[in-house]
Design a protein that fits this description.
Length: 253
């Protein structure tokens, strides 16, 4: 699946969304941008959302898993995502892409950088807590277990880790509480307009609530009403709705 994402500039929520024309990076928006990643949200989704919210047209290149073996030797560090801007050298590292896309689309205002980076750091800490329960099933050798560890043994360890994660004093309720407290009464993480902080947080909340992580209930946000309302509010932004609508249409075709 590969598409060029071009979203409308006007919508009922336009006052909440940044204007590309006001950024010093407007010229760069006219260069072709190609973002390559797998056909999942993963670590590239924050970058996609930054382009979408900033009104930046980009080629959303989503490769199949069976293409990766051929593509991997051509990448900079043997990793995806990879971003190509015009004829420049390909760029790796999703955090660098996110901040660049944020500058390009007015989602990384200088006066908000400290708050934005605090939220990004908090979201990254949340993911570090979650990662062992994910990677024990994919790379048990990283955690000192045999690479050929039986699936049932990996699953048992994974479930124990997630049981601890969702306990009342576990890492997930703790970090979700931190995010809700940071949000406070604001519409978005850093005020009344979305920034790349939201682009970082929202995909993680989506991952937690999709029901794809065995042992983590998709209702996990129910205990955090302000965070849940914020999650819903973000998805009501017109550019976000248009983006998700296009993805749904492509999946159905």
């Amino acid at each position: 699946f590969c598409s060029r994402v071009a979203l409308p500039d006007t919508c009922s929520h336009h006052h909440l969304e940044p204007s590309l024309s006001t950024t010093p990076f407007a010229m760069a928006a006219h260069m072709p941008i190609k973002l390559t990643y797998f056909g999942i949200e993963g670590v590239a989704e924050k970058v996609r959302l930054a382009f979408v919210l900033g009104g930046i047209e980009f080629e959303d290149d989503r490769i199949a898993r069976d293409q990766w073996e051929t593509l991997k030797p051509t990448t900079k560090y043997g990793q995806l995502p990879m971003m190509k801007v015009g004829d420049d050298e390909p760029i790796a590292q999703s955090g660098a892409m996110l901040r660049w896309a944020g500058q390009l689309g007015g989602l990384y205002p200088p006066e908000q950088i400290l708050k934005i980076e605090e939220v990004i750091g908090l979201a990254e800490d949340l993911m570090r807590e979650l990662m062992p329960s994910m990677y024990i099933g994919m790379r048990p050798q990283v955690y000192g277990y045999p690479e050929d560890m039986p699936d049932e043994d990996k699953k048992a360890i994974q479930m124990k880790l997630r049981e601890k994660l969702i306990a009342p004093d576990g890492a997930l309720p703790r970090f979700l509480g931190f995010l809700q407290a940071f949000l406070g009464e604001s519409q978005f993480m850093c005020g009344d307009k979305p920034t790349i902080a939201d682009c970082q947080v929202i995909p993680q909340l989506r991952h937690l609530t999709k029901g794809v992580l065995d042992g983590i209930p998709p209702t996990i946000l129910d205990g955090f009403p302000k965070l849940k309302a914020y999650f819903d509010r973000f998805h009501c932004l017109e550019r976000v709705k248009a983006y998700h609508g296009k993805l749904a249409a492509a999946a159905a075709s």
